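Good morning,

Attaching, inline, the backbone tokens for the sequence recovery test we're adding to the shared suite. The designed sequence is right after.
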């Protein structure tokens, strides 16, 4: 691993490269916060893909892409005379110090659970911090992740089940209500009840320390692998999927499952 000095030198090199590209490259020169935003989202998802696969080579690569975007936004801020990368780093360091009084102060937090409980209260005391507990949840978060974060933040201030096993009664209640509305063929009410049911399932996952987004993505990837196996088999046989019976596809699906064991 590299020394502290080598790390600082490498970071400085990245900043030097960006400074030059901003002046000499036509594409880099024309970029704005707005134009970069879609690329940043894409790079973040690519990093997430690498993290899900525990692919260290690509994690390193994608971290570099995300870091470049952070530095690029800071460079744009510098050009506007608003802030630069030093401000970004210092503000983040100051925030971390303020939010960790059990490390930098005299408060005691002897478990991760206690740290999280203190976290929301500390953020409410910050000068430019969140004004309410849930105001820190970004509106643009994907709905599944947003639901988890909302529930987690509420838990940090004591709004949670006394016993996690009690959540299953709520899950069953929401499922029954969803089924009832589906049988009535009420589209609007069914949509509302589906949301309530999904929210309760996410709540159950949280209570049992499971990440529902990771779980769903693992299932997505599993489905892709198995369905691709079925599709490739149909190509080899020269028989389109649309001409296969459900029984034939189920048989191939079971073969794909067996190969994963």
């Amino acid at each position: 691993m590299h020394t502290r000095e080598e790390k600082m030198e490498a970071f400085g090199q990245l900043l030097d490269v960006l400074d030059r590209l901003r002046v000499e490259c036509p594409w880099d020169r024309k970029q704005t916060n707005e134009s970069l935003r879609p690329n940043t989202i894409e790079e973040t998802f690519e990093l997430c893909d690498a993290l899900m696969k525990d692919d260290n080579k690509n994690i390193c690569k994608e971290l570099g892409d995300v870091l470049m975007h952070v530095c690029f936004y800071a460079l744009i801020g510098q050009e506007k005379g608003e802030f630069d990368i030093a401000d970004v780093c210092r503000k983040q360091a100051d925030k971390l110090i303020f939010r960790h009084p059990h490390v930098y102060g005299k408060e005691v937090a002897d478990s991760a659970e206690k740290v999280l409980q203190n976290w929301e209260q500390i953020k409410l005391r910050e000068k430019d911090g969140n004004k309410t507990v849930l105001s820190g949840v970004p509106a643009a978060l994907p709905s599944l992740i947003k639901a988890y974060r909302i529930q987690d933040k509420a838990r940090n201030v004591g709004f949670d089940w006394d016993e996690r096993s009690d959540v299953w009664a709520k899950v069953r209640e929401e499922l029954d209500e969803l089924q009832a509305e589906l049988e009535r063929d009420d589209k609007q009410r069914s949509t509302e009840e589906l949301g309530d049911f999904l929210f309760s399932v996410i709540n159950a996952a949280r209570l049992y320390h499971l990440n529902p987004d990771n779980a769903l993505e693992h299932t997505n990837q599993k489905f892709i692998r198995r369905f691709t196996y079925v599709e490739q088999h149909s190509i080899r046989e020269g028989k389109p999927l649309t001409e296969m019976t459900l029984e034939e596809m189920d048989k191939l699906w079971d073969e794909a499952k067996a190969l994963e064991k």
